[in-house]
C-alpha cells in the first residue's frame, strides 16, 4: 500500500510538472529549453480509444478496478479529484484537457466505459499524457431487434347459412346444380352427386338469400343482391 501511495503521489507531482511545462511552452514558445537530464516528446494530434479509469482503483485493484462493474466507484473517485487516465490496451495515458484544465469533469460520466478521445499526446520520463480537445463515447453495439410478431391467425368467417360449395368447374350458371338431402350443396354437373344426412337445417342457403351460381368458373353459393 505504501508503494501504491508513493506511485500516486509521484503521478500527481508529474501532472503538476507537466502542466507547468505546458504553460511554459504556451507562454514562451517552442524555443524554451528543456530541463537537463529529461526527455520530452510531443506528437501531433492523435485519436485514442480506451477505457476511462481512475488511477487509484486501477493501481490498487488491477482488473477488478476496470469495467462496468467498477464504474460507480471509478466515477466517485474521479469526482473526488483523483487522477484520471485512458487505458488503451496495456498502455495508460494520463488525461488533461487541451486548455490546461483537469479532465475529471469531462470524463467522469464515462467512467468504466470505452471512449474515443482526440488530442495531443506528450511523453516525459516514460509517462504519457494526452491533452484532450474532443471526447466521444464509443457507440455500443445495437441490440438485435426482436422480430415483429406474426399477425394472429383469424378464424375463417362462418357462413350465415348451413350449406356447402364444392367449387366444381363451370362455364355458366347452368353448369351448377343443387344436391344433398336439403338441397344445401352447390356443385358442378360434372361432379358425382353428393349425398348428405336428412336432418332439419335452418336456414338453408336459399333461405339466407343465396343462389348456386358460377363464379370465376367455380360453382358456389353466391349472395343475391337486392334489385
Name the features.
OB fold (Dihydrolipoamide Acetyltransferase, E2P), 227 residues, 2 domains, three-stranded mixed beta sheet, rod-shaped, five-stranded mixed barrel, alpha+beta, single chain, 4 helices
Concise summary:
This protein has four helices and ten strands; from the N terminus they run H-E-H-H-E-E-H-E-E-E-E-E-E-E. The chain has 227 residues and is an alpha+beta fold.
Query: Would you identify the CATH architecture of the largest domain?
Result: Beta Barrel
Low-confidence stretches: 17-43
Going by helix content, strand content and strand pairing, the class is: alpha+beta
* Biggest pleated sheet: 5 strands, mixed, barrel
Named CATH topology of the largest domain? OB fold (Dihydrolipoamide Acetyltransferase, E2P)
Percent range for helical residues?
10-25%
Question: In total, how many beta strands?
Answer: 10
Radius of gyration: 42 Å
CATH class of the largest domain: Mainly Beta
Mean pLDDT: 76
Shape: rod-shaped
Descriptive notes:
With 227 residues, the protein is of the alpha+beta class. It has two domains: 2-24 and 41-137, Beta Barrel (OB fold (Dihydrolipoamide Acetyltransferase, E2P)), CATH 2.40.50; 164-223, no CATH class. 21% of the residues lie in helices and 31% in strands. The strands form three sheets. It has a five-stranded mixed β-barrel with strand order 1-2-3-5-4. A hairpin with a 5-residue loop joins strand 7 (176-179) and strand 8 (185-188). It is rod-shaped and about 105 Å long. The model is unreliable at 17-43 (pLDDT under 50).
Amino acid at each position: 500500500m505504501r508503494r501504491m501511495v508513493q506511485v500516486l503521489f509521484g503521478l500527481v507531482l508529474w501532472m503538476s510538472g507537466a502542466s507547468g511545462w505546458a504553460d511554459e511552452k504556451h507562454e514562451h514558445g517552442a524555443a524554451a529549453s528543456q530541463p537537463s537530464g529529461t526527455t520530452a516528446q510531443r506528437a501531433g494530434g492523435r485519436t485514442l480509444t480506451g477505457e476511462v479509469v481512475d488511477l487509484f482503483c486501477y493501481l490498487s485493484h488491477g482488473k477488478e478496478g476496470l469495467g462496468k462493474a467498477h464504474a460507480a466507484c471509478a466515477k466517485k473517485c474521479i469526482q473526488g479529484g483523483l487522477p484520471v487516465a485512458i487505458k488503451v490496451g496495456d498502455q495508460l495515458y494520463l488525461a488533461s484537457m487541451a486548455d490546461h484544465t483537469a479532465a475529471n469533469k469531462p470524463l467522469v460520466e464515462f467512467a468504466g466505459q470505452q471512449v474515443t478521445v482526440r488530442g495531443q499526446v506528450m511523453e516525459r520520463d516514460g509517462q504519457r499524457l494526452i491533452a484532450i480537445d474532443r471526447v466521444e463515447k464509443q457507440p455500443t453495439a445495437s441490440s438485435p431487434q426482436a422480430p415483429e410478431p406474426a399477425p394472429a391467425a383469424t378464424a375463417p368467417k362462418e357462413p350465415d347459412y348451413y350449406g356447402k360449395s364444392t367449387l366444381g368447374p363451370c362455364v355458366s350458371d347452368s353448369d351448377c346444380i343443387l344436391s344433398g338431402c336439403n338441397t344445401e350443396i352447390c356443385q358442378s354437373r360434372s361432379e358425382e352427386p353428393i349425398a348428405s344426412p336428412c336432418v332439419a337445417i335452418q336456414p338453408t342457403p336459399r333461405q339466407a338469400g343465396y343462389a348456386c351460381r358460377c363464379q370465376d368458373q367455380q360453382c358456389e353459393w353466391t349472395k343475391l343482391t337486392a334489385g
